[in-house]
Amino acid sequence: MLLPVLRSDFPQGPFRVLHFWMTDMSAARLREILAHTIGPTPWYWQTFPAITSVARQRFDWSHEGEDGPVGYVVTLGLEQEPGKPRLALNTYCRPFFVAPSYLGIWCPEGRSIRLTCFDPDSLKAFETAEIAGWFKQSSDRIYSHTEPVAEVEVPLDLAPGAHKIEVPPEFATVEELIIPTSYKAMSSDDPAFALFVIYPHAGLVEVLPQKWFTAAQYRVGQQWITRAARDAESHRIIGECFGVGTFLLAEDGCRLERWLQKSGS
Questions:
Q1: 109 assigned to some structural domain
Q2: What is the rounded CA–CA span in Å between residue 66 and residue 69?
Q3: How confident is the model at residue 46 (pLDDT cuts 50, 70, 90)?
Q4: CA distances (Å), 247 to each of 29, 188, 204, 224, 230, in order?
Q5: What are the C-alpha distances in Å from 139 to residues 75, 89, 112, 133, 244?
Q6: Residues 199-202: contacts with CB within 8 Å, 24+ apart?
Q7: How many other C-beta atoms are found inside a 10 Å radius of the C-beta of residue 57?
Q8: Are residues 261 and 190 in the same domain?
Q9: What are phi and psi of 255, to 5 degrees?
Q10: In the chain, which ranges are continuous DSSP H helix?
Q11: Residues spanned by the domain of 186
């Protein structure tokens, strides 16, 4: 359900005055932030952090390779139980921390963005053979024997700007998620990608069409925005565009200010 959004609702972002000129905006510092930003499965699985649960169990991520019936699948399992996954992710999934003890996953789901959270200690083990070829026959991107603690879907057809959304209370400790996603363009000059900046704790989402990323300027599909993050010092958004390079956005979060590094340079 979407509700009217007021200027006073917004915790940060478009209505906040940003004084970034005294901040170190060097390309090297911003690229270092991006290097530690989580990206999509399976290509960025090594950016996924290890998890230690409330029961002090350590969970590690594994990439099942690029070939065979479990190709491109990333799994999560106990460190002391290799080969017995408890969660499996198909392409384009990203994990995030949901304090104090949950594991969040966001992924595209049809014409929506799906946010889920799991209790790691409740995840049940299964055999890798169970998921052999399963993702190739299913549109699901998450496989588990355990239901999520909570989940919510955010529609991708939202207009540019801020919108109120209903978010389960389990996500209340998450301040911000910056989600790159394809965006319906009516012409080759319209934005083909957008950043959905979700503030779960405030029940808000801000849609930022990337006005610079159009089919007239880029090879949409071959080139795409893989990950984005907010610089805590300047509050500017930085990101990575596969096949092009890393970039800094203007204050409005929609226009390209400059490239931090071009691919191959």
A1: yes
A2: 9
A3: very high
A4: 12, 21, 25, 12, 12
A5: 17, 12, 13, 12, 29
A6: 199/10, 199/11, 199/175, 200/115, 200/167, 200/171, 200/172, 200/174, 200/175, 201/11, 201/171, 201/172, 201/173, 201/174, 201/175, 202/9, 202/10, 202/11
A7: 15
A8: yes
A9: -110, 150
A10: 27-35, 134-137
A11: 7-36+162-265
In a shared domain, residues 69 and 50: yes
Q: What is the DSSP letter of 135?
A: H
CA separation for the pair 170, 164 (Å, rounded) = 17
Q: Are 91 and 78 in contact (CB under 8 A)?
A: no
94-122 tens-digit pLDDT: 999 999 999 999 999 999 999 999 999 99
Euclidean distance between CA atoms 107 and 197, whole angstroms: 14
Residue showing tokens 């399976």: 42
User: What are the tokens at 155?
Assistant: 């529609």
The H or E element containing residue 81 is none
User: Which amino acid, residue 251?
Assistant: E
Cα separation, 76 vs 67, in Å, equals 19
Order the strands of the 102-109 sheet from edge to edge.
94-98, 102-109, 112-118, 150-155
Q: What is the pLDDT of residues 222-231, one digit of tens each?
A: 999 999 999 9
